[in-house]
Amino acid sequence: MGQKVHPTGFRLGGTQSHVSTWFAQKKNYSNYLLEDYFIRKKLYQKYGQAGFEKIQIFRKVENELTMMISVEKTDILVGQRGKNLKNFQQEIVQLVQHYRKQKNALKPPPRIHVTLHIFGCSNTSASSIADFLIEFLEKRYSYRSALKLLWRKKLIHNPPGLKIQISGRLNGAEIARREWIRKGRLPLQTLRAHIDYSSKKAQTIYGLLGIKVWVFHHLYQYK
C-alpha cells in the first residue's frame, strides 16, 4: 500500500522553511512552542477573513519577536497603507504578555519588541482556497456548487497544478465518502517542486468535513 507523506514536511530544509525558527533551552522549549501556537490561534480567530497563508515567527533573544505574515488581504490587519500597523503591533505585544502572565511559565520581560513584516499573497494559495470552500460549505452549499464557485470567482488565473479533496458526510449523506478533483500536473515526489498544501475542517450541520488542497506553483531551478 502507498504511504502518504506530508508535502511540506517532505521538503523542509530544502524548498520549504519552518514556520517557527529559534533556539531555546530545554526547560523553555515547550513554552515557546505553545506561545507560538497561541499567537497563531488568536490571529486566525480574530482576522480569519484576511486569508492567512503563513505566519512565521523568529526569536533571537527572549524579549525580541520577529513575525513574517503572508496574508491575502493586508488592509484587514493594518488598514489601508498601513495606518493601523502600530495598533496591530501593540496587539501582538499584549497577546504575548497576556499568555505569559496566564501560564506563568515564562518570565514576562519588562519590554517585548515585535517586528512585523507583512506581505500580500496571491489568491491561489492552498490556505486561501481552503478558506473559500469552508465559507460556502458552512453556508449549506453543496460541495459541487462550492467547487463551481471556486473556479468562477476565485481561480481566474489557474495555477499549473491543483488538487482538492473533500471528505465526510457530503450533502448530508448517511455514509461518509471522499471526493476529489485534480487539474494540471502535481509532482509530489519531485523535491524541487513548490507544492503549497493546506488541510482544514468545515463545521456543517451534518458534522465535520475535511478539506485538503494541494497547489503546484513552479519548479525551483538549482544552479
TrEMBL record:
GO biological process, one term: translation
Compartment(s): Plastid, Chloroplast
The organism's taxonomic lineage, starting at the top: Eukaryota, Viridiplantae, Chlorophyta, core chlorophytes, Ulvophyceae
PROSITE patterns for this protein: RIBOSOMAL_S3 (PS00548)
Keyword Mitochondrion attached: no
Keyword terms, alphabetized: Chloroplast, Plastid, Ribonucleoprotein, Ribosomal protein, RNA-binding, rRNA-binding
Domain KH type-2: 39-114
Molecular function via GO: rRNA binding; structural constituent of ribosome
Gene: rps3
InterPro entries, A to Z: KH_dom-like_a/b, KH_dom_type_2, KH_sf_prok-type, Ribosomal_S3_C_sf, Ribosomal_uS3, Ribosomal_uS3_bac-typ, Ribosomal_uS3_C, Ribosomal_uS3_CS
Similarity remark: Belongs to the universal ribosomal protein uS3 family.
The protein, known as: Small ribosomal subunit protein uS3c
Subunit text: Part of the 30S ribosomal subunit.
Stored NCBIfam families: rpsC_bact (TIGR01009)
Keyword Oxidoreductase found: no
An example Gene Ontology CC term for this record: cytosolic small ribosomal subunit
Major location category of this protein: plastid
Domain Small ribosomal subunit protein uS3 C-terminal: 135-215
